[in-house]
Amino acid sequence: MRLRLAAHGIDGTTLLVLPALVALLTLFIYPFVYGIAVSLAPKVGPFYSNYQRFFAEPFLRETIGNTLALAVPTTLLDLLIAVPIAFRVRLMRNQRLLTTILVLPVTLGTVLIAQGLLTYLGPQGWFNRTLLALHLIGAPLKLTNNYWGVFASLVITGFPFTFLLTLSYVSGIDVVLEQAAATLGARARARFVRIFLPLLAPGLAVTFCLSFVQAFAVFPSAVLLGAPAGSTHVISIAAYQAAFEQYDASLGSAIAMIMGAVQLIMVLGVLGARSLFYRGPVGGTKG
After folding, report:
1. What DSSP element (H or E) covers 4?
2. Model pTM?
3. In sequence order, which residues have a C-beta less than 8 Å from that of residue 236 and are 6 or more positions away?
4. Could you read off the pLDDT of 70-104 as tens digits, one per residue?
5. Is 265 helix (H, G, I), strand (E, B) or coil?
6. Residue pair 225/117 in contact by the 8 Å Cβ criterion
C-alpha cells in the first residue's frame, strides 16, 4: 500500500495536508454550499425569489452601496496612513515597541472602541468641548450615530491589521536598492515612485483586499455608532434582520451570498489590477 501511494507521489509529507483540507471542507466549503442551498429554498415563490426580492426592494439593494461607501474609503485611508508609518518604522531601532503601541487597538475590540468614540466624539465629548472652547464652532458637531462615527471606528480598528501587513511588505524590500538609486542621484520621490511603489503594489493589493473584506463585514460599529435604519444600513445588518428579526433564514442566507459575491468581485478586480504595476515576487527582493 505504501509503495502504491509512493508511486502516485503520495508520501507521509503529503498526508500532512489532510488536516488543513478537512478544516477547509468543514469550515468553508460546507457552510458555503449549505448557505447556497438554504438561500434557494425561500418560504414562498420560485427558488430565486430571495435574490429577486433583494434587488427589487431599494431598502435592501442600497445596502451594497452603503457598505461600499464605508469599506472602500476606510481601507484606502488606512493604507495611506500605514505606508509612510511603515517606511519610518522599518528604520527605527525600537521597532517592536512602536509596533506594539500601534497594534493596541486590535486588543480593545470593536465594542470598546465604539463606546470610547461615543464618549469622545459625542455632543458633550471632549472633542466638541475643545472646539467650542476654542470658538472654532458655534454648536457641537454631529460625529456619532451617523456615517462618520462608523467611519472613525473602522479606521481605528482596521489600521493595526493594515499596518502590520504593510510593514511586512516594506521590510521585505532590500534597502540596497534605495541606496543604489540615491547614489545615482535619484531623489526621495523618484525612489519611491520608481522603486518602492512597483515592488509594493502587489503587497498593497493583497493588503487592500484583506482589509476591505474585514471592513465590508462591519456590524457592531454600524449599530452602535451609526444609523442602522439610514446611511449605515449595511448589508450585514440586512442579513441579521432577515435571519433573526424576520426569522427568514433563507433570505438571510441569500443576502450573505450576495455579500460574499460583492467581496469576491472587488477582490478579483484588485488582484487583477495589481499586475498592471509589477510582475514578480510579492514579498520584495531580499534574498
Report:
1. helix 2-7
2. 0.84
3. 67, 217, 218, 219, 222, 259
4. 999 999 999 999 999 988 888 777 777 777 777 77
5. helix
6. yes
